[in-house]
Specification:
By secondary structure, the protein is of the alpha/beta class. It is built from 2 helices and 15 strands.
Length: 155
């Protein structure tokens, strides 16, 4: 990035400069061209992620490939295709495998995951008195969204 471009961005405000620097750093870490993330992004487990070009996410992104759950060591795989776009407050969590295809649009405050914190059916159901992090992790659930999809929360 040239100094002239940095000065033009800085003239538009410090918030934009922070966003550009943050996005540039995550582009380098994740090896993803054109990546843009908003304020307060939390990305954990980046070595277990494959992110396609053109990834965009608004404020408050929480994207995690969970490698430790209590005493368990996990080997998750989080794949996101090209031209993924997410609004504010999106949480993507992967303990086993989550695959999101190309050209997927995700609305605000959506949670995408392949796991939960405990078992909630049958005779081996988790106790509500047990902390969520202490509950056993269940078998993986299938998590995928194919290309040209959109996901949104409803309430």
């Amino acid at each position: 990035m040239s100094m002239d471009k940095i000065f033009r961005i800085a003239a538009k405000g410090p918030g934009l400069l922070r966003q550009r620097v943050r996005s540039w750093l995550w582009q380098r870490i994740l090896g993803c061209q054109g990546l843009q993330v908003g304020d307060a992004a939390l990305i954990v487990g980046d070595r277990r992620m494959k992110i396609g070009a053109g990834f965009r996410a608004g404020r408050g992104l929480w994207m995690e490939a969970v490698t430790r759950y209590g005493p368990q060591t996990l080997t998750p795989t989080l794949r996101i295709g090209e031209r993924f776009s997410a609004s504010d407050g999106v949480h993507i969590a992967c303990a086993f495998e989550v695959s999101i295809g190309d050209d997927v649009l995700v609305g605000s405050k959506v949670h995408i995951t392949d796991h939960n914190h405990g078992l909630y059916q049958g005779t081996a159901a988790s106790s509500p008195q047990e902390s969520p992090a202490s509950r056993p992790s269940p078998a993986p659930q299938c998590g995928s969204a194919t290309g040209f999809s959109w996901l949104m929360a409803s309430w």
